[in-house]
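Q: C-alpha cells for this one, please.
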Amino acid sequence: MNLKIFLFCFLSFNICANDQIRNINNFLDTDRFSYEQVTQNSDEIISGKLVLDPLQTYLEILSPYRESYLISKNFITYIDIDFSQQRTFEYSKSDYPIINIISKKKIPEDDDSLNILTLEESVYVTDKATKQIFKISLNEDETLIIQFKDNFGTENSIFLKRLT
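A: Here is the predicted structure, written as C-alpha cells:
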C-alpha cells in the first residue's frame, strides 16, 4: 500500500513539474516582451523590450539609458545609442547561459549541460559548467521572472511580459 501511495505522489509531482515547464515554454513562444531588470541594492530599474527571433535576440534598453544588444550565434553587438558607439564581440554560450536559455525560447529539458529541478511554483535551472542557478517562475499575471546571481554575486531579477 505504501508503494502505491509513493508512486501516486511521485507521478503527481512529475505531472505538475511538466505542466509548469510547459507553461513557461508556451509563454516564451511569444516573440516580443517588455523587459525590466532589478539589481539587488540598487534603486535603478532597467527597462526596455526584448525580441526573440529564430536567428537572433534583440534587447533594447530604453531607461535609464539608451542602448541595445543584438545577439546572434556567437556574437553580441552592443550599441550605445546616447553616445553613437557600437562594438561587436564574440562570446561563448557557456559564459552567458541565460542567453542560451532565453534564445531557445524554452527550458530545454533534453540539454545535457543543464540540471533542471522543479519545486513548488518555480523551475530551477543550473548550468553544469558555470554552476550558475536560474530560478524561473511564471506569475498569475503572466509575468515571467528570472532570478540569478551575476558573476559578482549580485542578485538580479528579470521580469518579462508579453507584448502584442
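A few notes: The two ends are 51 Å apart (CA to CA). The chain has one domain: 2-162.
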